[in-house]
Amino acid sequence: MVDARGSHEALTARLRATGSVFAEDEATLLLQHAAAAPCSPDELETLVARRCAGEPLELVVGWASFGGVRVTVAPGVFVPRQRTTLLVGLAEGVLRDEPRGAAPVVVDLCCGTGAVGAALLARLPGLDLHAADLDPDAVACARRNLPADRVHQGDLLEALPTALRGRVDVVVANAPYVPTDAIGTMPPEAREHEHHVALDGGDDGLAVHRRIAQAVRPWLAAGGVVLIETSVHQAPATAALLDAVGLPTRMVHDEDVDGTVVVARVPTEPERRATV
């Protein structure tokens, strides 16, 4: 039994014994959460037991810290990873560096909890932000983190209001990119607690990226940008999919967060003329 006034050291040892890599940090967070709730000793013990049984810490406490915001999480819904903060930072840079009017239209595709959109809205409150996901549990969760009427349920871009067609300035997508056969090698926190639809990228991990590349251009405004998270090994193939539909790309990798993003942009008219 653990109580909120108990030993941080003892809780750390208990978590470490179950395989937690960041046992000390997790113990701190659990005790802080218990104090803030507040939790009785029995309630704290239930939380600790859930974590020791392998449930993701974010689900145990009900939220994740991501990109400067606290995001509500829910069972089965993809928990935002810190590597995805690269996607947020790059999208923010595009929106700040390239003026796009008073309310740039941004789409958080395959939004999960809506974490990417929430982080962007916190940094750039004037965005006309929309989010979409196929999973109804993800949509319900994202509606707790974003304006509910801007979260759409459906298949990729088909979920969006048709009025956005040709008007989207930035698409950010943390779409599934794990090859189907590799899901079994993922940490149990992911493969046992997140819906496989949020993980499964098909035989080569590129099935959803392929569909985004094939569908995205008609939705983009002049100079529109697409940013897709991928792995460092898959980035050249993801980039090739976007290049093939006339969207020149660049690849960005950040070793600090182990994040990789492919950035593609609708060429301007002068750029198109220069390539003729």
Describe this structure in words.
This protein has 276 residues and is an alpha/beta fold. Helix content is 37%, strand content 19%. The protein has 11 helices and 9 strands. The strands form 2 sheets. The protein has a 7-stranded mixed sheet with strand order 5-4-3-6-7-9-8, with helices on both faces. It has a two-stranded antiparallel ribbon with strand order 1-2. The radius of gyration is 20 Å and the shape is globular. The model has no long low-confidence stretch (mean pLDDT 93).
Write a brief caption for the model.
By secondary structure, the protein is α/β, with parallel strands linked by helices. The chain is built from 11 helices and 9 strands.
Give the SSE layout.
Blueprint: H1 8-17, H2 23-36, H3 41-52, H4 57-61, E1 63-66, E2 69-72, H5 85-97, E3 105-109, H6 115-123, E4 128-133, H7 136-145, E5 151-153, E6 168-173, H8 188-191, H9 207-215, E7 220-230, H10 235-243, E8 249-254, E9 259-265, H11 269-275
Parallel strand pairs: 3-4, 3-6, 4-5, 6-7
Antiparallel strand pairs: 1-2, 7-9, 8-9
Helix pairs in contact: 1-2, 5-6
